[in-house]
Each structure stands twice: as C-alpha cells, then as structure tokens.
C-alpha cells in the first residue's frame, strides 16, 4: 500500500471524525517515524507489511474513539513535545490562553505554582519562557506527577519542581502567580460521553456544585499562598466566567477580569490579592 492510498483509505474509514485526514496523517507519520510533511513529499512510497498492519490497527482504535494523543503517546503544547497517557487530561490549544495571560502577569524571576499540573503542560510552558522563574507543579495523582516529571526531565528544565499534593495540602511556600486548569465540568454534562473526554480521567474533569467546587476551594486557600498583589488565574468552562468572578470577589480578590479563548468564548478568569 502506498502512502497516498493509505491516507485515502484511512480518511474514508474515519468518516465520522471531524478531523479524519489530520488524524490519518498524524497516525501514519507516527508509524513511519517521520514528520507529516514527509507524507506529502513522498506519497508514492510503499508501506512495509508491518507498517500497514500497525497503521490499520491504529485507525481501528481511532474509529472506536481512542484519542490520537493516546495512540501516539505524545501531544505538542506551546511547541513543547509532551508525553501523554490516560492518567491525565490531553493538553488542548485553548489552555495556551492561560499561559499567555499568566506570562503578562509574571516577572522574570517570579515564583509560580500550577495546581493540578497533569502532564505538566502549563508549568513547563511557563518555565520555557521564564528560565529564571521558580516554577512548581503539583497534582493529586501520583501517576500524573510521574508523567510531569518525565516531561520536565525530557525537556531538561532545571527551574521546575514537581510533586504530589491535593491542591494546597503539601504546599508551604508563597507565590507571585498561581495558575490552575481544575475540574470544572458538571457531572451531568452530556459532553462527558462524547469525543476524547470519554478516555480521560473523570477526576480531572468533574467537580461538584455545577463544576465550581474545586475553583471555590482553590480561591479560599490561595489567599494564604499568594504574595501581596499576587495573581490567581483559572481556566474554566465557557459559561462560567461570571460565576468564577463572583467566587473571586467573595474571597477578597480585586482587579478581576475574564479573558476569551481563540473562539471568543470566556475561558480564563483572574484576580489579584489585595
């Protein structure tokens, strides 16, 4: 089977995917150990019998709903190659908005905390832009902690500490910036039964109080771990901006603001400690 024929077959097989061709290209490039541009440069190249079988197996798994990132074991975020697995959320492009805004609030030597770090995507992205900052990422899940450590070590970021903590439970320090992409989906949300989230841990997605319980808990505790004037930033659901603003206000934060993602949806809300 030629590369171009393999892609045609895979795109047809993935007809129910919104990104059929892209999925096929990423998976075939993974099988071949090449960049996707190789597929366009050498469409007439033949797959070996082993490559053909591996590609067909991956396409079948994708048809059954498994995320491409889980099939390849990697996802790019902020131009950083990150290992991923089913112990954490798959990093998503919209979360880069949280990184962008946090950078505007950070000094070159800021102390930064990422709560619920997962793959380490957010804190590693910040560390890549702020090599003199003191960066810390924590997660409740030991599996997530180990994954984030692997990503940190692979990227050779020496200014990042990763360890286990249930939110602030094991944290003693104070920070200039606290960021979090916490669980914010209501348990009854129909989207939990659709797409890639079916293969991601519910503990990283779902929160009580219509998805706001963890955000509320973080707001209540962050006051004890932020320096004066420090900034707390959340990623949240597109309908939660006003609600998160209210929680920040109830906890004494000032200069509260909600920012939109690339699709013009409310996505990040921040406040400063008075």
Q: Mean pLDDT score, rounded?
A: 91
Helical fraction: 25-40%
> What does the overall shape look like?
elongated
Number of helices: 11
What is the total domain count? 2
Distance between the termini: 64 Å
Low-confidence runs (pLDDT<50, min 5 residues)? none
Judging by the overall fold, what is the CATH architecture of the largest domain?
3-Layer(aba) Sandwich
CATH topology of the largest domain: Rossmann fold
Highest-level CATH class of the largest domain:
Alpha Beta
Q: Based on helices, strands and strand pairing, what is the structural class?
A: alpha/beta
Portion in beta strands: 15-25%
Relevant CATH superfamily of the largest domain: Vaccinia Virus protein VP39
Total number of strands: 9
Give the spatial strand order of the biggest sheet.
5-4-3-6-7-9-8
List keywords for this structure.
transferase; elongated; S-adenosyl-L-methionine; 11 helices; 2 domains; Helicase, Ruva Protein, domain 3; single chain; 7-stranded mixed beta sheet; DNA_methylase_N6_adenine_CS; 274 residues; PrmC_N; Release factor glutamine methyltransferase; alpha/beta; 9 strands
